[in-house]
Amino acid sequence: MTYGVGMRINRGLVFMSDTRTSAGVDNFATTRKMFTWTIPGERKITILTAGNLATTQSLISLLEERSHVVEDRDPSILKQPTMFQVARLVGDTLKEVIAESSPNGQTSDDQFRASVILGGQIGDGKPTIFLIYPEGNFIEISDDTPFFQIGETKYGKPIIVRAYDPDMSFEDAIKLLLVSFDSTVKANLSVGLPFDVEIYEDGSFSSDRHKRVESTDPVYQAISEDWGDALKAAFKGLPSYNI
Amino acid sequence: MTYGVGMRINRGLVFMSDTRTSAGVDNFATTRKMFTWTIPGERKITILTAGNLATTQSLISLLEERSHVVEDRDPSILKQPTMFQVARLVGDTLKEVIAESSPNGQTSDDQFRASVILGGQIGDGKPTIFLIYPEGNFIEISDDTPFFQIGETKYGKPIIVRAYDPDMSFEDAIKLLLVSFDSTVKANLSVGLPFDVEIYEDGSFSSDRHKRVESTDPVYQAISEDWGDALKAAFKGLPSYNI
């Protein structure tokens, strides 16, 4: 599995994804699942992937036109006029890749299944995020649904539901996602460090705020440990229930 | 779905289950999923069920020998000499019920699938808990695995993993499970109030400490609200992460 989150706050967008890929517990590795494209001053696009690794790698290769020789590459993802058009392009490409692998037509239950979070900003458009399904269709983020998750989503959802605030700072947003990811890692072997983190400030059209958080990262370790203690303290403060 | 937890602490056992049953979002109802049998001074047995409602109701009816007229009933669950033998009986009965519904043999993916948490104490034995699979086999609780969950288990797992302590009081154990259930209810429509809660004190062989927690319960409401605030406060105290 995988765990990936794309979240919108008033200041911009925040993305986080783990890097564990596995075909059974005896065959796992570290793989990047976050991909970015930037044209400074014009567009910034980020994709997080979850699901069959052959499918998602093929998707990214097609989007980057790796079937062309280097000098002929001119990825159409960099030409679409709006994020909505980019979402259509990514959805169509994803659907094609899955259809090629599964000759009988693709369903959500397929072993070739994959999901994608697409976020970014183009020109005058607002920064936005889409969740793209293996069927190629997609939904867009809104004030009522300010974040999308893919992969192993359940363990880390309650804390985001409780602590999300659209006015939060980027620092707090990263902290929130680190806690959500840490809860998931503690409960599920198929999600693992390092994590890729990226923040995108509204109107910046730049991709320089990216970091890979390793398991040895002292701030991550402090957050992980302090969160356990803080939870216990918070828990102690609750009213008692006796029967 | 369902959410049910059986947890062992040094003082005894704690059980909690939700009561929502649904066949699609437009067809849901409240059903008891916690069942207890007691012979004062001799044995106390509690069962939590998750899965296909026809299967679990049939299981309970067979265990209570409801196929017999009232005066002939003499449930064998009340005759087994040890909790291990009770687990075998429940597992075999569960396997039979599922096999009857699915003529081609039963697998875990079956629509008739159901899981059971069985806990209690018989005579000189220690209080213990078993998790019984639809295949009829089962595992027993241990110091390393002091709780079992069935149904919609993921949302509520992180808080139990973090805050469980074998020395905790019954009050704290109930509080912990209420927080775990509250996190699940906030994230998943298929789990709902009221909750059935039961605590069993080592050596008491009694079932009088049982309560149904309604959504209007003021202590539950306070825990639910305070937990959100406490989480936010705990979250604020964590170190910041900037990139």
Automatic annotation (TrEMBL), chains A, B:
One of its GO terms (biological process) is proteolysis involved in protein catabolic process. It comes from the Bacteria. InterPro entries: Ntn_hydrolases_N, Proteasome_sua/b, UCP009120_prtse. Transmembrane segments: none annotated. One of its GO terms (cellular component) is proteasome core complex. This is Peptidase. The lineage of its organism: Bacteria, Pseudomonadati, Pseudomonadota, Alphaproteobacteria, Rhodobacterales.
